[in-house]
Specification:
membrane; electron transport; mitochondrion
Length: 92
């Protein structure tokens, strides 16, 4: 146990050197003030600009490419002959 903790073991909170109390500050602010620009900023987070739509439009064609790649991998696994794929096993 550190010596500073032993000295404060009586349950008193750590003294604040700056005198700033965050709880008093938050209590004084109360509710947020009215934002006159809130209506003008709302378009950024709705419709075409929602978080989902922004993510979806960041990678156009990713879904189609994933399906095409998976289809090719399945085709290669089941239908293509792998007769020339073993170069290291007794070929030389």
């Amino acid at each position: 146990m550190q010596p500073s903790r032993i000295l404060r073991s009586n349950g008193e909170p750590k003294p604040n050197l700056t005198g700033f109390d965050m709880r008093k500050f938050l209590a004084a602010t109360g509710n947020q003030r009215y934002d006159p620009w809130e209506r003008n900023e709302a378009w950024r987070y709705t419709g075409r600009f929602s978080r989902f739509n922004r993510f979806r439009s960041a990678f156009p064609g990713l879904g189609i490419a994933t399906v095409a790649f998976a289809g090719y991998c399945l085709y290669e696994h089941y239908f293509l002959d792998d007769s020339h794929g073993h170069h290291g096993v007794g070929a030389h």
